[in-house]
Structures are given as C-alpha cells and as structure tokens.
C-alpha cells in the first residue's frame, strides 16, 4: 500500500509492476538480469478521489498515455528492489505535485521610477544615435 496523504492511499492491486532488462551499457549481467522496473498505474480505474484523477489527467506529462495510464520506468539502481522503491516514490511525488494548488498570478504594474528610468535610457540612446548622423550645412 502506497500512502499519499492522511486520507488518500493506493492499494497494491492498482499498481502493475513488471521487471524488465535495463537499457544502456552494463557489465556481464546486463543481458541476463531484469533489474529495471516498469510501473503502470491506471488513473481512471484507481481508487483516488475524483479531484486527484481530474488533476492527473489534465497534467500535460508525456508519461501519461491517451488511455489514462501513467507509465514510470525506473532503472537508476543495480537491484530490482531499489528500482521498485524508486518507481513507487516517483509515483507518489507525481501525484502530490499534480494535486498541489496552482499559484495564481497577480498582475503588477511597473513603478513610476522604473518608467522614468526606461524613458531616460531611451532618450539617451536616441541622443547617441542622433550624434552619429552627418552634419549638414
């Protein structure tokens, strides 16, 4: 069981964990040992509250398929157990991050001093450029 918060948790049957062979360079065991973990989590079938499901499905993440399944591949560590723990931890952080409240943007205006500085810089630049012109008699 994966505990997300005090009220929300994910049962073991909701997470499909498969051992696969890790990619990349390795040693003698790389082609024999399945140490990487492929974690599949079906968001729509899960027992998460509707708010969580909605926020997860709305998130624009490449790990979520069109069917609403979250796929996490963990192959950072050498042992299968460490990769499994890493994948579950990444699932937990993904769910927590997706349900964190979105910070609203407050519109701000430039200060009077910053406006004056900008206009002064523009006029100085204009003066520099006008001094480059040829003088006509």
From TrEMBL:
Q: What is this protein called?
A: Aminoacyl-tRNA hydrolase
Chain residue ranges for the region called Disordered: 102-137
Query: What EC number(s) is this enzyme filed under?
Result: 3.1.1.29
Organism domain of life: Bacteria
Bias regions of kind Basic residues — which residues?
Answer: 102-120
Q: Which InterPro entries match?
A: Pep_chain_release_fac_I, Pep_chain_release_fac_I_sf
For this protein, what is any one GO molecular function term? peptidyl-tRNA hydrolase activity
Do the record's keywords include Hydrolase?
Answer: yes
Task: Please give the family membership noted in the entry.
Answer: Belongs to the prokaryotic/mitochondrial release factor family.
Q: Where is the Prokaryotic-type class I peptide chain release factors domain?
A: 21-37
TM region(s), chain numbering: none
Keywords, in A-Z order:
Hydrolase
């Amino acid at each position: 069981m994966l505990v997300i918060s005090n009220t929300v948790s994910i049962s073991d049957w909701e997470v499909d964990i498969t051992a696969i062979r890790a990619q990349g360079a390795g040693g003698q065991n790389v082609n024999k040992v399945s140490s990487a973990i492929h974690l599949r989590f079906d968001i729509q079938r899960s027992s998460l509250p509707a708010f969580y499901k909605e926020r997860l499905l709305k998130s624009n993440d490449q790990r979520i398929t069109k069917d609403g399944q979250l796929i996490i591949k963990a192959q950072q560590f050498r042992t299968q157990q460490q990769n499994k723990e890493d994948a579950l931890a990444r699932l937990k952080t993904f769910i927590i991050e997706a349900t964190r409240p979105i910070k609203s943007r407050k519109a701000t205006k430039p200060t009077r001093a910053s406006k004056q500085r900008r206009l002064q810089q523009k006029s100085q630049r204009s003066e520099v450029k006008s001094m480059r012109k040829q003088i006509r008699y």
